[in-house]
Amino acid sequence: MSDTTLLAAFLGLIEGLTEFIPVSSTGHLLLFGHFLGFNSAGRTFEVVIQLGAVLAILTIYSGKLIAVARAAPRDRQARRFLWSILIAFLPAAVIGVFAHKFIKTVLFETPMLIAVMLILGGVLLLFVDRFAPRPRHDDAMRLPLNVALRIGLFQCLAMVPGTSRSGATIVGALLMGVGKRAAAEFSFFLSMPTMAGAFAYDLWANRAVLDLGAVSDIAVGLACAFVTAALVVKWLLGFVSRNGYAFFGWWRITAGVAALALLFVLG
Questions:
Q1: I need a surface site. Which of 91, 166, 180, 212 has the fewest CB within 10 A?
Q2: Alpha-carbon torsion 79, 84, 87, 88, what sign?
Q3: How high is the mean pLDDT in each 10-residue block of the chain (267 residues)?
Q4: Residue 245 phi/psi, 5° resolution?
Q5: CA distance readout (Å), 265 to 113, 114, 161, 244, 258
Q6: Among 25, 18, 256, CA closest to 158
Q7: How does it sit in the membrane (predicted)?
Q8: Of 87, 154, 115, 98, which is closest to residue 30 (Cα–Cα)?
């Protein structure tokens, strides 16, 4: 097994570990890639391996999703849930299409920005975890549509690497009065169209620079991301129900400070 394949497997594990917790999987991937000298064409590797995490969440929630799809034609609540996911997804989809080039060529190439956003996001997560409004919504599948839209607007903040898609949606949900467990679960549901859309669009936008020789490394990274993400998703809901999100706030701050120190020492 080549060094590149081992690095791809390691980055896949990082992706799966961090995708669904509010610490920024993209920020971790880009920082590790920067310090380890890994650079994929068009940053395609970092986006494509997210498909492993998407497949993991689809596998875990397949039964619930199939039940909702079957019930939707006759069940108003099932249709409302589907509408809530669509409404929350649209803001990031629109901004992502129009700002794609700037995000990939500028924001993705600025390690200092990523480290700073990790720290700022950690401080915000600690604050919101402690001082969020009393929960009014405890079922991720029954959120009002206006709450779903606001969570979707928060998700747009994750266009900046280091912010965290799950972190932005969870913070938004907590501020909207969604319970801690329901906030994480709605973030899971919203990740499916968001990450699948990002994967498809990025693959199309970078079709001219795709490195076919890297397909095997991408497959290894994707498989590692799938396994790790499945384990994290099964663990996370119970953890946040008991402990909240403070642990992840301190994780972000520690990672951001360490990255700044390494940037200062190593460049």
A1: 212
A2: negative
A3: 80 92 89 81 71 91 93 94 96 83 67 91 95 93 96 92 90 96 95 86 71 73 93 93 95 95 86
A4: -115, 5
A5: 16, 17, 22, 34, 11
A6: 25
A7: Multi-pass membrane protein
A8: 115
